[in-house]
Specification:
By secondary structure, this protein is mainly beta. 6% of the residues lie in helices and 50% in strands. The protein is globular, with a radius of gyration of 13 Å. The model has no long low-confidence stretch (mean pLDDT 93).
Length: 121
């Protein structure tokens, strides 16, 4: 089975930054990877996704503030989050999909990790 293990969550002040990481065990083929988040009382939503060729897509609410990137040789995905606001609080999940990043953000991902908490105050 594929395991996606997130790290890097925690607490930050509004305007601050956090960097999330996700490691895939074992390595597996996926067309795209991304980050989802879920705030209390809200549905899980796509935050950002990236294709294997590096093309990216972001939710409107995080454009210009979040950056998704990957290191294929390390099977590692990152999410750099800058200028955080309290609305960014929630559990962040790493996810993978067998379709493109655009399709994954629209249709959903195939796998996701256990999540890491992000709290912005």
């Amino acid at each position: 089975d594929v395991q996606l293990v997130e790290s890097g969550g925690g607490s930050a002040q509004a305007g601050g930054s956090l960097r999330l990481s996700c490691k895939a065990f074992p390595s597996y083929f996926r067309r795209s990877m991304g980050w989802l988040r879920q705030a209390p009382g809200k549905e899980r939503e796509g935050v950002a996704a990236i294709d294997t060729d590096g093309r990216t897509i972001y939710a409107e609410s995080v454009k210009g503030r979040f950056t998704i990137s990957q290191e294929d040789d390390k099977n590692t995905l990152y999410l750099q989050m800058d200028n955080l606001t309290p609305d960014d609080s929630g559990v962040y999940y790493c996810a993978g999909a067998s379709h493109s990043a655009v399709e994954a953000m629209r249709l959903g991902f195939s796998y996701s990790g256990q999540g890491t908490q992000v709290t912005v105050s």
